[in-house]
Amino acid sequence: MNKELEDKIKAEVPQDDSTSREEKEILMQSIKDKKPKHLIETGTHRGLTTLYLLTAIDKGHLNTADPYEWGAAGNFRKFPELEKMVTYFQQRGSEMIRGCDNKSIEWAFIDGYHEKVEVIEEVEVLLPKLADGAVVWFHDTNGSNPSCDVPGAIEELGLKVEYLKTQNGMAKYVHKKNSVGVVAKVD
Fold it and tell me: Cβ(137)–Cβ(30) under 8 Å?
């Protein structure tokens, strides 16, 4: 990321309890490697992680959602060079995904509600809209928060993921479809 832009993001956007620096770097590198055109994020919060993600996007667009307005829309307006690459929805992640006409989402970051039932709802709506080979990242998988059960949702959905030991815990799922377009839950 451009150092000047990173400094501006740090100065303009309140730091929050979102992703750690290491987690932001992992997500940004994933975007750079995959070069997706259609991306989604659930759990925008103040938009800090979103802004970092946007710096890694090349010719793509990110839809992001949070049911609460924590200031993300105003934070995006501070960065006109990035704002054009994002559409912010003030609604639940599952509602945003449901409304996406695109059936070729290539990259997703699931960081909205962390209760098992909510994660399952987001992923069940997301799976049919994923492109073959799409990368889906899950946040807050370390189990340190008793109200979070992202790993339980992943297990119940039968997704094969790679867990990363980061500050908050992350999991990576690579989506595969078989020859007739049916979801094959493999890594």
Answer: yes
Task: Give this prediction's pTM.
Answer: 0.89
Task: Indicate if the pLDDT at residue 175 is higher than 80.
Answer: yes
Mapping DSSP to helix (H, G, I), strand (E, B) and coil, where does residue 125 land? Answer: helix
Annotated domain spans of the chain: 3-9+18-184
* DSSP code, position 98: H
Question: Which residues in 34-52 are b (16+ Cβ under 10 Å) and which e?
Answer: bebbbbbbbbbbbbbbbbb
CATH 3.40.50.150 fits 3-9+18-184, yes or no: yes
CB 33 within 8 A of CB 27: no
CA dihedral defined by 178, 151, 107, 76, rounded to 10 degrees? 160
pLDDT at 105: 96
Tens-digit pLDDT profile for residues 96-117: 999 987 779 999 999 988 889 9
* 8 A C-beta contact, residue 173 and residue 135: yes
